[in-house]
Amino acid sequence: MAKIGIFFGTESGRTHLVAKYIAKSLGDAASTPIDIGRARLADFLAYDALILGSPTHGGGQLPGRSVAACPPSWQAFLPQLAGADLSGKVAAIYGVGDQKQYPGAFVDAIAVIQSTLLASGARVVGRWPTTGYDFAASQSVDGEHFLGLALDQINQPGLTGQRVESWLAQVRPALLPGM
What family does this chain come from, according to its entry (predicted)? Predict the structure, then answer.
């Protein structure tokens, strides 16, 4: 079994594409990316290391049924984690957003997911610098860092590969200790 479970929520497919890129980069250490809308809690709990991806919709919402035309996603899954014991698990989060169209809620989903993970006992790694982005506000910023990897596939698609590879180099030791 793969050591790192990769779970994503998506509507447009961009977050899924990033999940596939991450899985390819990690090779045998990673699972095939799993759509969180189709995942069960047992699937999630089967991994000690997790990479989680989500877009942010509009004013900072998670994708899910309350967002028009969205399939079930993080919004439906996160309440299941509220009662789960994630002690001993380590997670890294990436968010996909649009810093030009939604500059006041850029990648807010990272903070929402992180909050649930921390409350359930998981350790979250993978902070990412805010330099090189042009946004007004984000719940996912602490000081000069995002709480996870921030990606803008609409306005900065050419930076995604480099950002993902640098971020993976940073989080890999925590997700795969001893490797």
Answer: Belongs to the flavodoxin family.
Domain map of the chain by residue range? 4-175
pLDDT of 176 > 60? The answer is yes
Greatest C-alpha distance within the chain: 44
Distances (CA, A) of 136 to 64, 93, 95, 147: 25, 21, 16, 16
pTM check: above 0.90: yes
CB 124 within 8 A of CB 91: yes
Q: Pinpoint the alpha helices (H) of 66-159.
A: 74-81, 109-119
Going by DSSP bridges, is the β-strand pair 90-96/141-142 parallel, antiparallel, or unpaired? unpaired
The CATH code for residues 4-175 is 3.40.50.360
